[in-house]
Design goal:
This protein is an all-alpha fold. It has one domain: Up-down Bundle (Hemolysin E, Chain: A), CATH 1.20.1170. Helices cover about 70% and strands about 0% of the residues. It is built from 7 helices and no strands. The radius of gyration is 27 Å and the shape is rod-shaped.
Length: about 290
């Protein structure tokens, strides 16, 4: 596996944080648009009106998704780590049992109590009665983890897809005229005309001129949208590939559940471990990147 294909950078991490903060500021910015319209009306201009757009309703949900994404990824990482540890222990114990008996030993004749997994305090469906039941429990646990990864991916897909609608409606609002009688100043220009309506932004402006600041703000926000569109798609690809390796591991475990001898099961367990190492490497990278 080439992990470099899924490498994330510190710049991308900062883009996610900045976009999250930007989403948190959208409500204040849009709430100030009627203030701008009224300010222009009070100066003798015809009152402008901006039609509402339901796509902005998604902003707080996307902000919440992003603020919660690392915690949910960390939780998935922790549970996957625990599963891989169980898998490694089960595989090691199976090899030890094989060493003390024979690779041709029938699973139906192997005492399942020799595996430490048999003493697990919890079971997804029911307590095991043989070795195949223990393998089935591993399958069920991995299915549950696969669902967690799938949900993480769906969350990021939603953030990615809704980003374009938010970008469109926000840009349209910023470019809207601030009064009905003149094309200029636009809403974003008028927002920067007074400190109390100036949008929050985390980069330094090159000038105190409100018109220059308005231009730089618009350009900065547009660049941020583009950066997050790219990194969110990359996260989706990472999680998709993680899920593919989990699916392959599940396939190997299902095959291990159906074999008849210790040697056959050990071969399938080795193949499962190979896939588990790969999906953990991808999750480790994603979780570490999100944490910093």
């Amino acid at each position: 596996m080439n992990l470099l294909a899924y490498e994330f950078s510190a710049e991308q991490r900062r883009a996610v944080d900045r976009y999250t903060a930007f989403l948190g500021s959208v409500h204040t910015v849009t709430a100030n648009i009627p203030v701008v319209f009224e300010r222009r009306r009070s100066s003798g201009h015809a009152l402008a009106v901006l039609a509402s757009d339901s796509r902005l309703n998604n902003v707080p949900f996307n902000e919440r998704y992003l603020r919660d994404f690392w915690r949910r990824t960390e939780e998935a990482w922790q549970q996957c780590s625990a599963f891989v540890s169980e898998l490694l222990t089960f595989t090691r114990e199976s090899l030890e049992i094989t060493k003390n008996s024979s690779r041709h030993s029938l699973l139906s004749e192997v005492d399942f109590n020799l595996y430490s997994l048999s003493r697990s305090p919890t079971w997804i469906l029911y307590p095991p009665t043989d070795v195949s039941d223990l393998v089935h429990e591993l399958v069920l646990r991995l299915y549950r983890l696969r669902a967690m990864i799938r949900q993480l991916k769906y969350t990021m897909v939603e953030v990615h897809d809704e980003l374009f609608g938010i970008k469109s409606v926000f840009a349209r609002a910023m470019d809207h005229r601030s009064c009905q009688c003149h094309p200029q100043p636009t809403v974003v220009q008028e927002l920067f005309s007074e400190r109390r309506t100036q949008p929050m932004w985390d980069t330094a402006y090159s000038s105190a001129d409100p018109l220059i600041r308005a231009v730089e703000y618009k350009a900065g926000v547009a660049g941020l949208f583009n950066a997050v569109a790219s990194v969110s798609m990359q996260i989706c690809m990472n999680l998709e590939e993680t899920g593919v390796r989990m699916d392959t591991a599940i396939h190997e475990l299902l095959a291990a559940e159906r074999v008849s001898t210790l040697g056959q099961m050990n071969s399938r367990l080795a193949a499962t471990k190979e896939q588990a190492d790969e999906f953990m490497a991808m999750l480790n990278h994603l979780e570490t990147w999100l944490r910093h």
